[in-house]
Amino acid sequence: MRLSAEEISFGYQAGKTVLENISFHIDSGEVVGLAGASGLGKSTLSKILAGYETPQQGRVLLDGKPIPARGFQPVQLVFQHPEKAVDPRWKMKKVLAESGQFPESELLEAMGIQPEWLERWPAELSGGELQRFCVLRALSEKTKFLIADEMTAMLDAITQAQIWHTVLNYVREHQMGLVVISHEQELLDKLCNRVVQLA
Ligand SMILES: Nc1ncnc2c1ncn2[C@@H]1O[C@H](COP(=O)(O)OP(=O)(O)OP(=O)(O)O)[C@@H](O)[C@H]1O
């Protein structure tokens, strides 16, 4: 399966182009890094790939076809700020069930989620604890591509390593594609088959 962005142009305001004629693709089973200086539009491209923003020109295709706007989104995005990605009025067990399936206990454990956290509200967890839920929620059986936009940037090294280890295992097992956006060259070198430089 191939996720492709073809000749994308996008601006948030008229006359101010953030992305101009950008093309990008990733195949199932690949881990692709997306790098580039701050403000070049990496997060914007990731939102377009995941269907959060619509480009003024160009298109996003999954195996050559547009991704349906309704139903489960096969391209899942996890970004840096988990507190902005969960409903504060939902307990964590409901947040996790949002993907339509509840993860198996082995996966919860591998992600370092303690069972008692399931009964808590988002505000009762640390950023790192909350991010583990956001990552896990994105790993549905129906997810074909995961886009990790500075996904572990605010976490300590041990937590980062634990999350990436679990995600990479899952991605390999399910033959998903993974896009990694990071300012850490070392992380990109370690995780990725290839790195695309946004210029
Ligand atoms: N919602 C928005 N409204 C208006 N402009 C925006 C919005 N979001 C981002 N921008 C602008 O679009 C440009 C690209 O931002 P984006 O976050 O995609 O870059 P980035 O490459 O991911 O940056 P960083 O590496 O700093 O995270 C920036 O100039 C930013 O100020």
Automatic annotation (TrEMBL):
GO biological process, one term: transmembrane transport
SMART domains: AAA
One Pfam family in the UniProt entry: ABC_tran
Assigned keywords, A-Z: ATP-binding, Nucleotide-binding, Transport
GO molecular function, one term: ATP binding
The ABC transporter domain, residue ranges: 3-199
InterPro entries according to UniProt: AAA+_ATPase, ABC_transp_ATP-bind, ABC_transporter-like_ATP-bd, ABC_transporter-like_CS, P-loop_NTPase
Family of this protein: Belongs to the ABC transporter superfamily.
PANTHER family: D,D-DIPEPTIDE TRANSPORT ATP-BINDING PROTEIN DDPF-RELATED, TRANSPORT ATP-BINDING PROTEIN
Protein name as annotated: ATP-binding cassette domain-containing protein
